[in-house]
Design brief:
By secondary structure, the protein is of the alpha/beta class. It is 48% helix and 14% strand. The protein folds into two domains: 209 residues, Rossmann fold (3-Layer(aba) Sandwich), CATH 3.40.50; 36 residues, no CATH class.
Length: 263
Amino acid sequence: MDLGIKGKVALVAASSKGIGKAIAFALADEGVNLSIFSRSKDEIERTASEIRTHFTVDALASAADVTSKEQVDQVIETTVQTFGGIDILINNAGGPPFGFFDDFESPDWQNALELNLLSGIYLAKKVVPLMKKRNWGRIVNITSIAVKQPIDGLILSNTSRAGLIGFSKTLSNELAKHNILVNNICPGRIYTDRIKTLAEKRAAQSGIEYEKAIEEMEKDIPLRRIGTPEELAALACFLASEKASYMTGTTIQVDGGLLRGLF
């Protein structure tokens, strides 16, 4: 299927590994030119090199933290200078620490909001004017299944990511007249460093082996396995495409059936 986005330009945050990297690869496979960034200069440049090797697209790599407005501004400025604009924004970021209400103080809450809510708002604020000029745009936010079903021990993530959903739904209504679509993806258990860390914590707390902890995490997934970043990337690529032209304001989980609710 031709997704109709060959030659478009995508800005993909936190894309040196895991879900962000998989999305960058999926977009590159569709002929999308990429501006990718993460905090690690070496890792993001390595990822850009892999993209250039495997696909016939341009890949611009930058070292930047999504919580730094100055660094994000520089990434966007360089992207526009290189490609002339931005058509697709993939808002992606790591998650805040594991823990419960009594474990955190005010700075922890502020950090979580900056990481999983304010960074997405700021990126959209900077990119939307560029999309309006072209009367075309796609914003895809990578959040968590926690926005539909809060996860015990992830109170910071449950709170900060839910805010992004409210923002995105409102933004989707405002931008529809400009042919700019805004959608959210909620990963369930996808095999990334985040899941590995949670499995290690579960193993330590329960006194079991890491492999056993992974098995325990798979038991309540109807498909009986943890998903791959590539499986999530396929949906992200579709939502970023011309084929998703009548979808906006949606929040879709990729979770192997883990979510038990109807919505």
